[in-house]
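QA checklist item 7 of 12: single-chain prediction sanity check.
[x] sequence parsed
[x] length recorded as 253
[x] structure emitted
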Amino acid sequence: MSNTVDLFGMRISRITLRDTVGQVLDWCSAPRGECCRYVVTPNVDHAVMFAHRADLRAAYANAALVLADGAPIVFVANLLKLRLPERVAGSDLVPKLFDAARKPLRVFLLGAAAGVAELASARIVRQWRRIEVVGTYSPPPGFESDSQENARILAMISEARPDLLVVGLGAPKQELWVHHHHRELPAKVALCVGATIDFLAEHRRRSPVWMRRVGLEWLHRVLSEPRRLAGRYARDAWVFPQLVWREWRRLYS
């Protein structure tokens, strides 16, 4: 059986959360390579964007792992008999990595609103004694187009020398930025994990566990942030079934 699933044009890693934790920690323990390995975490919104964004497709093509973050992605894969073992959400992955670390792990938090990463850092060092947060930074709007600001960020990360870079810049900005700079990023692994820094800081609340288990975390998020997310979810609800139908025809017609 292949270790990836071809779905919506993405090659999604056929891997469990437990095995992902082990793989990322192995990479963090290994010597630094020529470039930073990075992990992307697609959900329904990624699948919708993927069809018409060549830059996002390029970012995914170079990713070390492509994890099925969205429950609908896993549901559709299994509906189409492609057999993804489980959802591997970025917001689950990061704390599980911290739980599993058996030796000091140097972490840099990049993203979230001003002050939020600092709150996350304080909580991390209280809760996980083997995790050393060696830097935090919240880039200003439009930073990705500012060469001086990008050089500053890379210098900050270089000085901190993290094993793990946790990136919470929102999609597709985080994937595009990490892909653009992965050959010069001085971290061993970068995780593109959306709102995870906000969750670690308790700046935003995740959905109850039962909602995650039945695939309704998206509903909790849109009810929590209707102005920001309602339009996106309405678009995705229209486009995503069309993508599913296209995949069904590709596989079975």
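[x] summary fact logged: The mean pLDDT is 92.
[ ] second reviewer sign-off
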